[in-house]
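Memo to structure team: turn this sequence into structure tokens by end of day. - J.P.
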Amino acid sequence: MKRKGASFTHQAIESEIRRYEQRTHWIVFLRKGWPRRKQFNKHPYALRFTFYALVLFLWTGCASEPRPDEQARREIVVFAAASLTDALETIADSFEAAYPRDRVILNVAATSLLARQIEQGAPADVFFSANLAWMQQLEEQGRVVGPVREPLSNQLVVVGRPETPVLPSLEALAGESRIALADPEHVPAGLYAREGLECAGLWEQIFPRIVPTLDVRAALLSVRNGAADVAVVYASDVQADPNVRVLLQWPAACQPEIRYAAARLRDANHPEGADRLLAYATDPARTAVWERFGFLTR
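Reply from structure team:
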């Protein structure tokens, strides 16, 4: 049924559309693609301006500034001695809670291995070393920036499985057939153990029985899985494994001076975050955390 005064024929509709197209070039674009050349030339910039304005509007709308909680977190890569694993994980968690924009990435291994990786250009922001020697070597190469902090100390102990009898003295260590310790050629825990055994005059006697491991945590694992009878480790490492126990406290007269060092590295990708983490980790407020994991604070 037709309304009075209105025509809905196909020809009438097409005629109306053509008249409207002459007034608004957008209809041409929407219905048939880009306008014909003669129409485009009438207003050479109008359609382009309108099109680009629409694209810009849509782009800025979609690319709005993300909320703070959606922004990318800045990674702080930390190379740390294996003995620091558990304590640093706890401190990193509380640090991230205090600084939500920062994310701590821990790479834990033997200090010597990490130092060599840094020498070869491995990307890292912070280095926690289990002795001063490896940190000083990096300092001499110009790879350390700012002050070197020495926040922690430790002590050597002899550990074994729960059923292993306690040792009455350090000399009794010579009666064990397999003694695990971190590689005494370059890993700090092994170097400290060698120093302590040389002080007691036992190194030459014990050397043939040594089972060298990649790091101090690997020495602890050697005892747990039966690859070694006993191990020389840090006192803090005993906290990490309930399946071992202390068989002997190292005699004070031959206890080496164990000193940890921490510093920001020259090629840090996030130097501000590195300094922030170092200040946080070595703040006296963190003393209770370090001591809970068996470290001595300086």
